[in-house]
Structures are given as C-alpha cells and as structure tokens.
C-alpha cells in the first residue's frame, strides 16, 4: 500500500518539480515502486523533467474524468522500470479536476505502488489544494529567502486545516526540504541560514539541497538530477533525503562541490 | 414588589459588551419550536454567543422561568443575564440586567441586583505556531500563544496578548475598545502592533526593541514599548 506524499511550497520556482522527479527516481532506483503525479494542470512540467514528454497520450484529467484507464495513462520510465509518471494536461485548467475524481485516482494508485508523489502547482488555489488533500504527509520545499519561507508557512497552515487527515483530527506530518542552498552566500549573510528557516517553520528537516548548475542541466536533458549525475552534490543530497523518507537515519550535512572554503562556510551555516 | 431598577449597574471598561437579546413569546412551547427550527437551519447560530433574555412581556413564576432556562440550556444557549423581570421571586441564579440610562461612571461599584461580574471573560491559549495567513480572533478575553506568530499571521483580542515565542505577524490587543489591554512577547519582530486602535507599524518600532523581549501598553493615545529582562 503506497504512502502518498505531496511536494508543495506555495511559491513557484523553488524546486517542487525537480524535487518530485529527483525523489521519485532515487526511491525507484532502490527498487521501490513509485508513481509521480503532475497536478499542475495547464502548466505541466514534470513530463519534461522526467524526459517523457513525447510519450504522453493520456493524462490525469482523462483518468479523473473517466476517459481513460489509469493503466493507459501511467507512463513507465525508460531508465527505471519501477518508476511511473502520470502527466498533467496542458490544454485544460485546474477546474477540470474534481475532488471525487482525484480521490478515486489516488485510491486506485495506492495498492500498486510503494510511493505516490504528488507534484503540487504553485499557489494555494484549487490545484494545490487538491494535490495535498488526500496525501498522507507532505514535503514542503523552500528556498532560504524570506518570501519563500513565508509562503511555505502559509502552506503548512493549509496542510493542518484542509487535508483529509486534518479533517479527521489526525496529525499531518510535514518535512522541510531546503533547496537552492548556497553555503557561501549564507556565510555572507545574503541568505537565511538553516536555523533561521527552522525557527520560522518549526517542522523537521528532511534535507538540504545545495544550489548547483547540475539541477538546471539535468532538467534540460530531461533526466531527474539523481539519475543524471548521481555523484553531484544535489544528487547526493536528494538521495540522502529519499533514504530518510524510507526511515533510514542519515546524518544531515550540506553535500557540496566546493572545496575547503565552502566546507568551512557550510559548517558554520549548519 | 415594584420593578427592580438598579441605578448604576455596570462597571464599564472602555465600552459596552455585545450580547444577543432573546425575547421569548407566549405560548412558550411554540416559541421554543421556532428556536428549534432556527437551530435546525443553522446549528451554530448561538454557539459561543452571549445571550441576554428579555422577559419583560412575560409573566413568569420562578419555577417557569427556571424551566425556560433549562429548555434553553439543553439547546446550548448560554444566558448571560435576564432583562425586565416583573417579579422579585427569581432566586438570583441569573443576574438581572438593566439598560444603562445615563450613568456610565467608571468608578462606581456595582450595586443591588446588578451583574457585578458579567460572566468570566473566556481567554484563549494556543500551543501551536500561528502560521502565515491564519487569524486568531478572541472577542472575549486574552490570548496566550505558547509558540511563534508568523509573518502574515494576525492575533485579534479583546484583552491582552501574550506570546511566548517570536512575534513576526501583527497583534491587535484591546481591539474591541480596551485601553488597558497589553501586549507581551518574548521576541519582537512584528509587522504591526496595536492597542485599542492605536498602532505602530514595523518601520516605526525603534531598532533596539527589535528581536528583544518587550511589553507594550497604552499611555493616553501613545503606544509605549519597553524591553523586559
């Protein structure tokens, strides 16, 4: 039975889709059965980052509206056979998603997978609310800057109030993934440090992903960063986060490509 | 006995209290059925509201009055006081209220049958962080937050506000007219604080109060801040 997690942030451009693809690929590489679901109807991106954009026939909307079966819409990854994508529709909008339909799709995915990862659209409107509503827990993605952190705080409030779990009075687990973290800029005081962000958000830390050119490069070639260059700093950080999701105790550090100077700053920041 | 009209019944603190006045009509059974119909349509209609019952048009014995209270209590309607009783037989279980005619003397102690304490103000304690976009409203009493208040969050209280964490959002204390309300917080990074409508925005807060433990109070029309050890 799958664990359903939503990758959410409030703010756009902080790395939700990158994170969904990277965590999904990292989990699947370890033999876990993973479905990544794009909820950004109208502005789909996950298919591009996964490199499956040319194989999309049916999408989430088709399944929600009963026009296609789930098995027809799930796209198996070419690199890892336990990794599947359910793409969003680019020609429709978020009003095409019905609450009942989304719940049905999630319930149908649960028995076949170990992990269902819902890639939330930015914002706090319908699409974002539907992406989080049926999740078991949440990965909140934030950058170390004030507007991102405040938006994440807003989203945490929503996770605590509008999700199915919250409505049943159960606690909704939330984990922070701090992305685009630049130890040198933190050292110079140009970015919030880890403690500042944790002090504001008060949720457990799942991982710290360093700022890196590898992320953009992986996106451009349509490969999750954890597969494109597994030795790179962001790939290692995502892989560590994925292992933590599975319950492993992995010491928390900022993997870095920088030499001694970066390590010094990294240590001071953490 | 003549009608009881206490001369100065209330001790007002900076304003009047809002209460819903219910005026039952005879026959009471029909009226109660109407109340039930209302509650069926909107179950939360009386929830958390203070209600005053006006029985000036009824002639009730003590027992029938107690029966009526019992009926209302089973419907979870909380009666704050009774207005216009035409008999002195009531046993004083519910304070008798009189509409204030002229006197609003703050210093006058309440007397006679008057409500010396209008039901204890209900305060609110919150032990989780108040997140951006959330609003905590307490129209009755004080608010205590045993966590931080995020940027973009808002606390509105009739009384004082105590925050045992960092205040990054906005706090409106004494928001319903209470100059004696105060604000306490362990670390001030607020967007805005206000007492009884007198506010200071972040820009006007002196820098040495930033990130310090502070208390704020109203001195005339001026909102004052001081650090606490």
Describe the fold and architecture.
The complex is a heterodimer of chains A (270) and B (229). Chain A is an alpha/beta fold. Chain A has one domain (3-269): Rossmann fold, CATH 3.40.50.300. Chain A has helices at residues 16-29, 46-50, 60-64, 70-73, 99-109, 126-133, 146-159, 164-167, 183-187, 194-201, 213-220, 225-228, 233-245, 260-269; strands spanning 3-8, 34-38, 75-76, 83-86, 115-119, 137-142, 173-181, 205-210. In chain A, strand 3 and strand 4 (83-86) form a beta hairpin. Chain A is globular. Chain A starts with a strand and ends with a helix. Chain B is elongated, with a radius of gyration of 22 Å. The N and C termini of chain B lie far apart (59 Å). Chain B has a 6-stranded mixed beta sheet, with no helix packed on it. Chain B has a 5-stranded mixed beta sheet with strand order 6-8-10-12-13, with no helix packed on it. In chain B, strands 1-2-3-4 form a 4-stranded parallel beta sheet, covered by helices on one side. The longest helix of chain B has 14 residues, at 28-41. By secondary structure, chain B is an alpha/beta fold. Chains A and B meet through helix 7 of A and loops of B.
């Amino acid at each position: 039975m799958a664990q359903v997690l939503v990758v959410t942030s409030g703010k756009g451009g902080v790395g939700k889709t990158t994170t969904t693809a990277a965590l999904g690929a990292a989990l699947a590489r370890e033999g876990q059965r993973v479905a990544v679901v794009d909820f950004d109807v109208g502005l789909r991106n996950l298919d591009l980052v996964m490199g499956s954009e040319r194989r999309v026939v049916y999408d989430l909307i088709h399944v929600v509206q009963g026009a296609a079966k789930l098995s027809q819409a799930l796209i198996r990854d070419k690199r890892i056979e336990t990794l599947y994508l359910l793409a969003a529709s680019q020609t429709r909008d978020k009003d095409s998603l019905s609450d009942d339909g989304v719940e049905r799709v999630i319930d149908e995915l649960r028995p076949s997978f170990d992990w269902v990862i819902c890639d939330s659209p930015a914002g706090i409107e319908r699409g974002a609310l539907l992406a989080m509503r049926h999740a078991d827990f949440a990965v909140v993605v934030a950058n170390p800057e004030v507007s991102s952190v405040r938006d994440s705080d807003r989203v945490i409030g929503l996770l605590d109030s509008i999700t199915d779990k919250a409505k049943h009075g159960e606690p909704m687990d939330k984990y922070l993934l701090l992305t685009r973290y630049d130890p040198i800029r933190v050292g110079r005081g140009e970015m919030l440090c880890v403690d500042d962000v944790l002090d504001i958000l008060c949720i457990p830390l799942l991982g710290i992903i360093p700022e890196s050119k590898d992320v953009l490069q992986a996106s451009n070639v349509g490969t999750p960063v954890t597969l494109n260059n597994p030795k790179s700093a962001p790939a290692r950080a995502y892989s560590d986060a994925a292992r933590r999701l599975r319950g492993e105790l992995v010491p928390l550090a900022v993997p870095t490509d920088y030499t001694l100077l970066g390590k010094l700053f990294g240590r001071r920041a953490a | 006995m003549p009608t009881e009209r206490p001369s100065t019944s209330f001790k007002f603190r900076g304003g009047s209290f809002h209460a819903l006045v219910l005026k039952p009509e005879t026959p009471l059974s029909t009226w109660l059925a109407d109340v039930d119909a209302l509650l069926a349509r909107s179950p939360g209609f009386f929830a958390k509201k203070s209600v005053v019952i006006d029985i000036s048009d009824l002639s009730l014995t003590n027992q029938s009055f107690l029966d009526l209270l019992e009926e209302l209590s089973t419907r979870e309607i909380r009666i704050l006081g009774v207005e216009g009783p035409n008999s002195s037989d009531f046993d004083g279980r519910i304070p008798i209220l009189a509409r204030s005619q002229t006197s609003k003397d703050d210093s006058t102690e309440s007397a006679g049958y008057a409500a010396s304490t209008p039901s204890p103000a209900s305060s609110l304690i919150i032990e989780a962080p108040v997140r951006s976009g959330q609003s905590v409203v307490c129209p009755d009493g004080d608010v205590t937050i045993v966590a931080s208040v995020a940027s973009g969050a808002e606390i509105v209280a009739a009384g004082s506000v105590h925050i045992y964490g960092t205040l990054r959002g906005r706090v409106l204390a004494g928001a319903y007219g209470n100059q004696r309300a105060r604000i306490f917080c362990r670390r001030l990074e607020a967007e805005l604080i206000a007492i009884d409508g007198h506010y200071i925005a972040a820009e006007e807060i002196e820098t040495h109060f930033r990130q310090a433990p502070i208390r704020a109070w109203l001195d005339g029309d001026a909102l004052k801040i001081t650090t606490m050890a």
